[in-house]
Amino acid sequence: MWRFAPLFTEVTFCEQGATSMLPIYPGGHMAYQNFVVEQLRNHYANPAELPDRLLDIAECFWEKNLTGIDTLMQECYSRFGPKPRPPSCMLRSVLLSIALGVPSYTKWVEQMKTVPAYAILSGFKFGDTPGIGTFANFFSRLWQLDTSNIQPHEQPPKRKVKKPKKGEKAESVEILTVGELIQQLEKQAPSEKQPYALLFKVFKQEFLDESTARGLINPSALALSGDGTPVATSAQQRKMRLCKCKEQGISDCSCNRYFSQPDCDSGWDSHRGRFYNGYALYMFTASDSENDLPVFPLLHSASRHDALGFANTFFTMKTFLPDFTVSKLLLDSAHDAMPVYEYCRKNHIVPFIDLNVKRGIKQKYKDDFTIGGDGVPVCLAGLKMRHDGVELAKRRSKFRCPLTNRISGVCSCENPCSSSKFGPTVHLAMKDNPRLINIPPRDSAEWETEYAARTSSERCNKRIKNDFNLEGGHHRCSKMWYCRLYATMMLQHLVAWDLPHESAFRTALKAAA
User: Fold this and answer.
1) Where are the alpha helices (DSSP H) in 167-264?
2) What gap in Å lies between CA 116 and CA 130, rounded to an integer?
3) Are residues 318 and 327 in contact, defined by beta-carbon separation less than 8 angstroms?
4) What's the distance, Cα to Cα, between the start and end of the chain in Å?
5) What is the mean pLDDT of the chain?
6) Of 128-137, 267-276, 329-338, where does mean pLDDT reach its minimum?
7) DSSP secondary structure, 21-56, as one string
8) N or C: which end of the chain has fewer CB within 10 A?
């Protein structure tokens, strides 16, 4: 059952004293700052000697006001009962645990009971910290669905991915093609009513919008780099038969099974060259950001092909970020499909997509020339032609004979293929083949410079998986995986912001000494 409530409406209470039950940090961010300095001085003789890693994240918390989350999540809490922990403190504690490399929240709860700094920087008094049940309730409030997974536990047997050749990616197990999926999504965009909707609102309001305000992301002309990466959740599929077919000698029946992780299945990890069970994380990154900042993620089943993951993630992102205008798309060869180019052309997006040799890279053009793998025409003599400008109004590039001297007008070819003084000239129009014909052309310095930024996706995914140890959570449900994923994204934005030259946090610690 879906749980959605208006998140930005004004809350009024008639009951006397009911407002005291709201999860608001009293005094706001300044009160949190004073609390941290006072409590650290009470528990440590010299707080400035705490580990640098801890002080660095403390400085980020000192500068970033997270109390807006308390207002955002008011409707997720009851107005009656005991006063809840402020969501800002709970989120701060989650971010701190991931930044310090503690993957288990059970262990984190224990560490907050023994290390005063962990509790204090989260916003809790040492000795009065939340238990594992409070964290579980906090994650459930962020997840807008009564069940912890999106798909039901009972499902038919899942299709198996075939092992590809060495160095290649596995073929898609889905019958739906990229073109058909894009057509469907154009007709009916994904709904905003997603289980992770509130998670994304928290991320956008407190982190993505902040990075945009700081000039780290340009929402009016966004250059996006997209890539998928495997997220292993278990060594193998956890499933159980619900039928009696095996007892009757039928071992490969199509009866439903009970999957403990219904949103996951088995996929092929082309980087490690092995099968894995879990998700395929598709992440969009701001490629023109120096910090490789994440913009929008989506967890797909591991067997889903990157091209299908791209289409689903892209249109979902458009639903959640309608004010963002995408101007460029930087994608690898797994996305080299004609429907992607046609969509980009129709929506004025410049595609920078590497060609997939398996889909063909040489095509005849008007019976006279061949278009090479880099989108440059090859003359009848087998030579690559030279660039001779771009006509943006007509969306076409001009190429000329490579053996003709423009000054003297002399062609040095032994068998000239044109009677023209300057040799043959070819105009490549994008409308003829938007996949092979690019502006800028693939062999140009401009294209190479732009496409080099595609590695921002790989660096972003590396930070999420390695630096913040996404897979270390060992969770059993999509709710926890999404919460952990968004927390790692929040940390990437948080540490990317420039801190003041003189640390206000360290100065406050010294002043309180």
Assistant:
1) 178-187, 197-203, 209-213
2) 13
3) no
4) 53
5) 86
6) 267-276
7) GS---TTHHHHHHHHHHHHHHHH-S-GGGS-HHHHH
8) N
Q: Are 4 and 144 in contact (CB under 8 A)?
A: yes
pTM above 0.85, yes or no: yes
Q: How many residues does the chain have?
A: 513
What average pLDDT does this structure show over 26-53?
91
Q: Report residue 451: phi and psi, to 5°.
A: -70, -25
pLDDT value at 189 more than 90: yes
Within 13 A of 209's CA, how many CA atoms are on the CB side? 12
Gap between the Cα atoms of 111 and 104, Å rounded: 11
Task: With beta carbons less than 8 A apart as the criterion, state whether 397 and 387 touch.
Answer: yes
Residues of the chain with pLDDT > 90, as a percent, come to: 56
Q: What is the DSSP string of 416-459?
A: -S--STT--EEEEETTT-TTT--SS-TTSHHHHHHHHTTHHHHH
Residue that has been written with the tokens 């992440």 in this structure: 283
The confidence score (pLDDT) of residue 394 equals 66
CA–CA dist 462, 280 (Å, integer): 14
pLDDT value at 15 more than 70: no
